[in-house]
């Protein structure tokens, strides 16, 4: 089997209702998609934060065997100097091809699934242009609980007054039995992150995500030692090298690689092994189209509970609840959460079929 063609797509879906995290407003959702075709007629799909260049495809992909994922990854990466976000898209597509060629879902190629459905947390609760944002957040959070989600995550990082008031309001809305995580999207410095963290800690938070910029390893260590809250982060890091110090210096309780940014299946397996060797929990980040959603499910299904226990801390899947037709319409049979659980695709490869009409509609 040989790769014969590589096509790339930049997708953009304009939002009906913009929303904001601590870093700015979002008016559209985007995705970088790669389609890799082979001489056997099998096509693989991948998604990355960016897409490979034509020169990358011509030099490292055309004519290669898609099963040579390690060789291709190493050649493209050139010891960390390559565009790892683009390599992520290529790598996911290669694993999709391998699964289809062997008539097996990707999770079986990765060693098998520890779970065939994954408990999910509803990822939403952004800042929006509402007359009463607190009331809007409470109503949204109640909808997630009513839909059966055992956990929710909300956006903070908008200043002490906003965060303290609205975290307490969301906790009140969801009750005491639902897990609550908060995400500051790197919106604070160390001192402010600690100060706000102490003031919201009384709301029984499951984790405090990305309070500061991710490359500030010493800052994360300081925050983790100062607060009695699990600290999470790492969604924007690329390649195992970027994760090494944060994991080995125990700057995080929960590391959150994104399969479409960190390097695809091939690299994320190595990051997971590093985290496991250092007793750091790994919960993948997911924020993308149907392709990234399916890929993350296959990978997360293969990550064992750690530590093993009769009632282990759940391997929570990030289920994006925001408006995004790239996630809900790009696959002909979209993956959905049912009663707070997300099923792992069982068809060969990634287990999804791309709707080309939707692909072309949002290609720019």
Give a quick summary of the entry.
The protein is an alpha/beta fold and 364 residues long. It contains 13 helices and 12 strands. The protein folds into 2 domains: 3-103 and 356-362, Enolase-like, domain 1; 108-343, Alpha-Beta Barrel (TIM Barrel).
Give a verbal description of the structure.
This protein folds into two domains: 108 residues, Enolase-like, domain 1 (2-Layer Sandwich); 236 residues, Enolase-like C-terminal domain (TIM Barrel). Helix content is 37%, strand content 21%. It is built from 13 helices and twelve strands.
Keywords:
13 helices; TIM Barrel; 37% helix; 9-stranded mixed β-sheet; 2 domains; 3-stranded antiparallel β-sheet; 12 strands; alpha/beta; Enolase-like, domain 1; 364 residues
Would you tell me the structural class of the helices and strands?
Answer: alpha/beta
What is the total number of structural domains?
2
CATH fold-level name of the largest domain: TIM Barrel
> How many strand units?
12
Beta-strand content: 15-25%
The CATH class of the largest domain turns out to be: Alpha Beta
Average of per-residue pLDDT values? 96
From the spread of the alpha carbons, the general shape counts as globular
Our Rg estimate from Cα atoms comes to: 20 Å
Task: Using the 3D structure, state the CATH architecture of the largest domain.
Answer: Alpha-Beta Barrel
> What is the quaternary state of this protein?
single chain
- Low-confidence stretches at least 5 residues in length (pLDDT < 50)? none
Largest sheet: 9 strands, mixed
């Amino acid at each position: 089997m040989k790769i014969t063609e590589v096509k790339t797509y930049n997708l953009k879906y304009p939002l009906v209702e913009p929303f904001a995290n601590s870093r700015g407003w979002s008016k559209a959702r985007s995705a970088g998609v790669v389609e890799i075709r082979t001489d056997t007629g099998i096509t693989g799909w991948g998604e990355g934060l960016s897409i490979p260049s034509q020169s990358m495809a011509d030099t490292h992909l055309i004519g290669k065997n898609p099963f040579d994922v390690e060789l291709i990854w190493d050649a493209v990466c050139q010891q960390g100097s390559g565009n790892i976000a683009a390599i992520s898209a290529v790598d996911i597509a290669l694993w999709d091809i391998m699964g289809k060629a062997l008539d097996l879902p990707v999770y079986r190629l990765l060693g098998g699934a520890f779970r065939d459905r994954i408990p999910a947390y509803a990822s939403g609760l952004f800042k929006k242009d509402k007359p009463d944002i607190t009331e809007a957040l409470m109503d949204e959070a109640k909808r997630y609980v009513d839909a059966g989600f055992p956990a929710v995550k909300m956006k903070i990082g908008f200043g002490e007054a906003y965060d303290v008031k609205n975290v307490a309001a969301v906790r009140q809305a969801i009750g005491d039995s639902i897990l609550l995580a908060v995400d500051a999207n790197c919106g604070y410095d160390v001192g402010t992150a600690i100060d706000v963290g102490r003031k919201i800690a009384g709301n029984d938070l499951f984790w405090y995500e990305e309070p500061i910029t991710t490359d500030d390893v010493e800052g994360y260590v300081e925050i983790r030692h100062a607060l009695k809250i699990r600290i999470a982060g790492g969604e924007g890091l690329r390649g195992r090298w970027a994760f090494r110090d944060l994991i080995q210096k125990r700057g995080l309780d929960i590391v959150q690689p994104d399969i479409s940014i960190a390097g695809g299946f091939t690299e994320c397996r190595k990051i997971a092994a590093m985290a496991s060797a250092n007793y750091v929990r790994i919960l993948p980040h997911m924020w993308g189209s149907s392709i990234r959603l399916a890929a993350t499910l296959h990978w997360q299904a293969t990550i064992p509970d750690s530590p093993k226990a009769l009632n282990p801390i759940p391997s929570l899947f990030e289920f994006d609840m925001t408006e995004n037709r790239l996630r809900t319409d790009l696959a002909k049979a979209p993956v959905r959460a049912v009663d707070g659980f997300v099923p792992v695709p069982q068809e060969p490869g990634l287990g999804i079929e791309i709707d080309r009409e939707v692909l072309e509609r949002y290609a720019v």
